[in-house]
Amino acid sequence: MKNYRCLLFTGLLLLSASILFAQNFAQKEYEYLNKLQQTSGEKLTEYIIAEYEHFLTAYPFSVSTPDVMLRMSEKWQQKGKEYKALASFLKLYYVFPDYANANQIRAKILALVSSERTLRKMEEKITALLDKRSSATEIAHRYFNYLEALSVLTGSNMERLVDETVAEARFFHSRYPDDVRRDSLTIWIADIYRRYGEDREAASEYLKFDYLYSGSVFLPYARYQRGMLAFEKLKQPEQAIEIFQKVVTEHNTSKYAGKAQFATGQVYEEKLKNYPAAIDAYRLVVSGYDDSENAVAALEKIAIIQSKRLRAMADAVKTYREILEKYTDHVDSPRLYVICADLYLKQLKDYDQAAVFYALAAENNPEHEDAPELWIEAGETCDHRLNDYRRAIQYYQKVIELYPNHKKARDAQKKINEAEKKIVPETENNSDKENLDGNEK
Predict the structure, then answer these.
(1) pLDDT tens per residue across span 389-418
(2) Taking the alpha carbons of 373, 376, 380, 382 in that order, is the dihedral positive or negative?
(3) Coil, helix or strand at residue 347
(4) What is the dihedral of CA 369, 375, 381, 387, to 10 degrees?
(5) How many CB atoms within 10 Å of residue 251?
(6) DSSP state at residue 424
(7) I want to staple 220 with a disulfide (CB 3.0 to 4.6 A). Which of 196, 251, 324, 405 is the partner?
(8) pLDDT tens per residue, range 78-115
């Protein structure tokens, strides 16, 4: 036990000595940087920046670090590197809130943003991020908040911050390997890569997430996004299906399970051209998940395959009608009614149902700009296809009753007049019938 205590005491002494040595060396380098800044000219700018970067890498949290960081930020600004300057100023603002000149840093950031055309359009968002800075005491928490702000900007059309964000994230990973927020950070970096078209890098980050954070709540999202990259960007349809089905089976209560099942149908339909498998996959979206929005989208996909790929028009109409009957709340335009009407009219030659669906399209969407025209379509179908002039007049009359000031009202009246001329009076019909009966006798 005595030997153990002796070793422990010796270890603590060595650690303390190491810390004191580092602090002493940091102070010496800081004094050197002060001298260098006083005596160097413009020709040494690149060298000075390299020395600042070395200092900040070697001593990221020394007492002199904020001063060096401020100088670095100003150097970047002088060189016209506004994005590097912004990242550096933000780091100083977030990570070192107690810095003696902290009040000046916010003003410097806002002045930089307002003076640079490329940054000015983000002024409102940057100001909001500055206002959002927390009063965290732990430096790891402050650093994480800085990375969150940086990732928000990087993901908002500020591509030139990508390298800074990735580098800072990697530093956080190495500095705080046990931090529970590292999974969020990995997701941010993966999303940033995906945002700017670095598809393979993004897929690799999502895959890394799969290996490192198997218990994270973000795992279904990471897997789903990796599947979408394999499907949409990397030309790996079979792998995409495998990833999506892992989301479906292992995260069946996640909101991404239904999305992954839907995407499985898309892969079969768009990449593999396996239409029966696509229909089966879409059907599982409808039957397996309490998600009306995805169900409607899946049913419409099925109907499109049936009509355009398999030429099964009756099946397509049946599927469209399933949407209209089961998911009424999700039908907010005449579009699907019109598709049904067109299929009945042009493909199935069922003119009665065509007229019904044109009328339903108008009746269920009375405020839609096409409603008057749809009533006329219903009327014309009865008029010209069914020779049912009385029913046609009823549909035409709807335009006059509901939209008396619409330009189509005049057309409707003309069509009514023409249809009325085609109606054979009842007395004439009776007369013809009597004549026919007499001749037969």
Answers:
(1) 999 999 999 999 999 999 999 999 999 999
(2) positive
(3) helix
(4) -160
(5) 17
(6) P
(7) 251
(8) 999 999 999 999 999 999 998 876 678 999 999 999 99
Distance CA 3, CA 55 (A): 39
Q: How many whole angstroms separate alpha carbon 383 and alpha carbon 376?
A: 10
What DSSP element (H or E) covers 421? helix 407-422
Q: Name every residue whose Cβ is closer than 8 Å to that of residue 263 and which is 6 or more positions away in sequence.
A: 224, 227, 228, 231, 240, 244
How far, in Å, CA of 186 to CA of 208, rounded? 8
Structural domains in the chain plus CATH codes: 45-179 (no CATH), 332-423 (1.25.40.10)
Are 96 and 70 in contact by the 8 Å Cβ rule? The answer is no
CA dihedral angle for residue 315, residue 319, residue 324, residue 330, rounded to 10 degrees: -160
Least confident of 92-101, 242-251, 258-267, 403-412: 92-101
**Closest by Cα among 62, 151, 69, 80 to 102:** 69
Task: Give the mean pLDDT of 272-279.
Answer: 98
Judge contact between 172 and 127, C-beta under 8 A: no
Separation in Å, CA 135 to CA 96, 132, 151, 381:
11, 10, 20, 71
Instruction: Please name the residues in contact with 140: beta carbons below 8 A apart, sequence gap of 6 or more.
Output: 175, 176, 179
Tally of CA atoms within 13 A in the half-sphere of 30 that contains its CB: 20
Side chain identity at 275, as an amino acid letter? Y
Token representation of residue 114: 């307002």
Query: Which residue matches tokens 């007229």?
Result: 355
Q: What is the pTM of this model?
A: 0.84
pLDDT of residue 330: 92
pLDDT digits (tens, 9 = 90+) for 141-186: 999 999 999 999 999 889 999 999 999 999 999 999 999 999 999 9
Token reading at 434: 């009597």
d(CA 117, CA 311): 55
Instruction: Report whether pLDDT(441) > 60.
Output: no
Cα-based distances in Å from 384 to 169, 172, 393 = 70, 74, 12
Distance of CA 109 to the CA centre of its chain: 30
**Contact status, residue 333 vs residue 368, Cβ threshold 8 Å:** yes
